[in-house]
Amino acid sequence: MNEIKAQARAEAFQRRAEAFAAGQGQAAEILADYLAGQAGTVLSGYMPMRTEIDPLPAMAAHQGPVGVPVIIGKGQPLRFREWSPGCRMIEGTFKAWIPEEGAWVEPEVLIVPMLAWDRRGYRLGYGGGFYDRTLQGLRSQGSVMAVGFAFAAQEVDEVPIDPFDQRLDAVVTERGVTIFA
């Protein structure tokens, strides 16, 4: 399975880079509109890296606390530090930007980055398992919504999965919202 996922990741990186070069269209506005019904909840976004689609406008528009993921250590679930536009950022693990200080928050809605997604609601991540562990832990404590954010071009016929892979509740792209039952 590791080789299959590695090949899928290489292909997905290429598709995402091509989509990024073409522009993001109305993706952030569609995401903000979709999340408007979640006002007051704790939202987790992410700081976009390389060719990841940019959720920052939707995060800034959210009416409620917003956190960004902090990698605590290998094999550990993510933690989330409160973020606001203009807060002081520092480089964290894997060169991801994180708030220098702020309260730890527990998200009720997560915007999840990815390399690829399929119509079953599965995503292909970078291989560290951070979001899968995090979603599993949050879901064991109650209801949490995972919203994938990607380019439409990142959709594939079928993402290779392992038993521990967590499904998304929805994916938002520049073409609209796909909700998984």
Would you give an account of this structure?
This protein has 181 residues and is an alpha/beta fold. It has one domain: NagB/RpiA/CoA transferase-like (Rossmann fold, 3-Layer(aba) Sandwich). Helix content is 27%, strand content 22%. An eight-stranded mixed sheet has the order 6-3-2-1-7-10-11-12, sandwiched between helices. The radius of gyration is 15 Å and the shape is globular.
Helix content range? 25-40%
Give unreliable regions as ranges. Answer: none
Strand order in the largest sheet: 6-3-2-1-7-10-11-12
Shape, per Cα inertia axes: globular
Mean pLDDT: 94
Q: How far is the N terminus from the C terminus?
A: 26 Å
Name the CATH class: Alpha Beta
- CATH homologous superfamily? NagB/RpiA/CoA transferase-like
Number of domains: 1
CATH topology tier name:
Rossmann fold
Strand content: 15-25%
| Structural class category | alpha/beta
CATH architecture: 3-Layer(aba) Sandwich
Instruction: Tally the helices.
Output: 4
Give the SSE layout.
Elements: H1 2-22, H2 27-35, E1 43-44, H3 56-61, E2 66-70, E3 79-82, E4 89-91, E5 97-99, E6 104-105, E7 109-112, E8 116-117, E9 123-124, H4 130-141, E10 145-149, E11 170-173, E12 176-179
Parallel strand pairs: 1-2, 1-7, 7-10, 10-11
Antiparallel strand pairs: 2-3, 3-6, 4-5, 8-9, 11-12
Brief summary:
The protein is α/β, with parallel strands linked by helices and 181 residues long. The protein contains four helices and twelve strands, in the order ααβαββββββββαβββ.
